[in-house]
Automatic annotation (TrEMBL):
It comes from the Archaea. Residues 6-122 form the Response regulatory domain. It comes from Halorubrum xinjiangense. This is histidine kinase. Its EC number is 2.7.13.3. Residues 137-207, 254-324 form the PAS domain.
Amino acid sequence: MSDRIPVLLVDDDPDLRAVTASYLEREADRIAVETALDAAAGLDVLADREVECVVSDYEMPGTDGLEFLATVRERYPELPFILFTGRGSEEVASEAISAGVTDYLQKRGGTERYERLANRIVEAVEKRRAERDAERAIGQFRAVAEGASDAILSIDTDSVIRFANPAVESVFGYEPSELEGEPLTTLMPERHREDHREAVDRYLASGERGVDWSDVRFNALHRDGREIPVSVSYGEFSADGERQFVGVIRDDSERDRHRAFIEHAGDVVAVLSSEWRFRYLSPSCESVTGHAPSDLIGERSLDYVHPHDREAVKAAFGDVRAGGDPPTAEYRFETADGEYRWLESVGSDRIETDGVEGYVVTTRDVSARKERERTLARLREWTRELNYTRTTDEAAQLAVEAVDDLIDAGLSGIHLRTEDGDRLEPAALGESVPSMFETQPAYDRDEPPGTRAALAWDAFEGEESVVIDELSSYESLDEASPAESLVLRPIGGHGLFVVSAPEPHVFSDTDVLVAEILSGHLEAALDRIERESRVERLHGATRTLVRAESREEIAERAVEAATDVLGFSIVTVRVHDEAAGGLVPSAVSPEAEELLPDRETFTPDGGSLNWGAFEAGETRMYDDIRAADALDADTALRSLLIVPIGEYGTIAIGETEPGVFDGVDEYLAGILATAAETAFQAEARTRRLAERTAELEHQNDRLEEFAGVVSHDLRNPLEVARGRTELAREECDSEHLTAVERAHDRMTALIDDLLTLAREGDPVTDAEPVDLGRVVGSCWRTVDTRGATLRNEAEGTVVADEGRLKQLLENLIRNSVEHGSTGSEGRSPSSNQAPPGDSRTESGDAVEHGGGDVTVTVGTLPDGFYVSDDGPGIDPARREAVFDAGHSTSQSGTGFGLRIVEQVADAHGWSVRAVESEAGGARFEVTGVESAN
């Protein structure tokens, strides 16, 4: 077989895939890597090309590494499969083991991880090749054993071989022609030859058989001079009157080897009768169960099976069929000391030879595997509880209790790094620690080599578990310790997981794996607790942030939150200033002010990382700005995190160490930026509202001034004109005086509507429940309806200013009465007319303003009310224009009536529109009205 090792590497990250392939081929020139971007592509490669090992990532889109492993195991059960996981992948290790993974490694660490991966690949492939060679040899042997015939020889009375079948070559090494004509003693060792001749002569003389011809056993002589055990069955026949003898010779070498294998095998080989009684047990029975084989022969096997498992065993072995799958059962078996041990038995077909009827069963001890499965099951329960811890102390104590339960390591403890980073202090300790240690173990960073502290810090700053089976003989430790077995596992950047016991060589590979998985979940729990604590404190800070009253105060509070709550040191908030043409610093932390040079503005063409993140609208994180061609590359700043504040600016966070920030920092900075953006938006709205309020107040002042002028400076001359007109009528009777009086009335209406417009624009602040139907009736009695008909279908109570609601309804009713005549030539909005009973109208007034044949309907809408009539309606092209101030086609109308309606609706926050009524007339709908019901 070629020494080349074809490997399939599956990883969705193209850069990492290329780097891993290059390193593997460089670390071991035997390795040839074929890559695939996902599980589907990997299966295609396995189908088309020879692959001796699969290396797969775990977190991939679509089918993940464990699902890919399951598919590979279905199609290629024996193919080595290594899971190459990212940080925190220990949480899937138990599932990977259950799914049959060959090995798994973490991606964390330097280039040495590729050396480890290459070594694991070579080891896995060489092991599989050896297993395959062994399987092939066994298969070949079986094929020969099943296809070969026994050697058959015939001899005459002189013991000369007269015939040999082809099988003699496989038994004795001779071609059949080489034996024919040779004496039978050719196949016998020297010591047996004389006995054979005497036995033949005695039989020929007396017919007396000295042995049982059906089964004669002795050592025969092979052509190469070695002796081989054989069994022979003899027979006698006559050919052409000549007495001859035939012998069927079976080579017993294989049987002896098989017996030796059974006698020395670790698994127990047993023969059970149909009544479940032991007929044979191999010697390994005693090492597995504690029972000597002779003690169990004749015993009923089911009596030793745990009562809860007997039915399952009987079901498994109750129907064994030739050619079917061999029955298999796992059960608890009572040992010689009365304890129970888990066994797994695989049965063959039923046998019926030598008077024995029953099964051949091969049994192995699976107690360790069952214990491992139980441990992993309990481990999953403990890790689930870790997910619900709320404090660091709670998580640490739970982890110590878990390791004591799962591994029985009473000297264990969780040591967390202090805030200054120079000490590992105990956060939780096992129950036995106080009695074994004079003082609670804590580890200072500056302790000299050879101390327990130095050993602890070396493990904390490493990436792999440190496993020591016998601490007292460990060369790197000079300080005495109550512990002998030790496992040290870093908990990310939080601290160190110490698992220890006072006896040496206590921890198995499974125990180490459990400690690693548990520490991984503890790290995730501590990350979550820290993140939740920071988020909670950050939310408190953001509440003060959104209450800031100026952009400068928002920026300052954002810097305070980033430094005091999130623990960042170098923080700058820049605000986008259009006048300055870029991002201008608005607030800076003291350390940033000390370390970084003054730069007033980052402009689009300045090449700053800040502007790049702001313009792209995305968060950008740099492990080392010296590799990013940054403006501050020549300063002490190394790590940099830039988060845009929407359209308002950026928050830039830095540290003097490279690679400081992670996903949690990015997440929390994003929350802070979102809060700052909300605060900036609120400040902008408040500022615009203040500006608008000031503008409206100024407009209202001007309008109020205008209303005062209209009320005082126009009414007085108008009243003088009215009085002069009355005096003139007393002196003479002229038709021109009537026209003058009509003009005076129109001027009065214009003044009234102008005053109404000036005073109805203020928002409604004293709304209260108003009975809509009652107000409609009141308005109908107030307006000069000229004999028109009202259909009051309004129901319910609305929230409104009753006086202004009346103004709106009176204007709409008056509009319908004045313009609803079916004989009208056109329709346009008008305003108040002469008081009821005024007879001073023109002859054409009934045509222009309607008459008694109009019906006005007031009804309720789901969110408001409407006023409609059955008059000629409004031209669709003019329905929006009717609400414009001054829009009127009536000679007597002011054009302000419907404008006042719209203004009253706006003051309430309502909407009004003109549409066609069911009768073809005009219909005005007021919506957005709050119901008091």
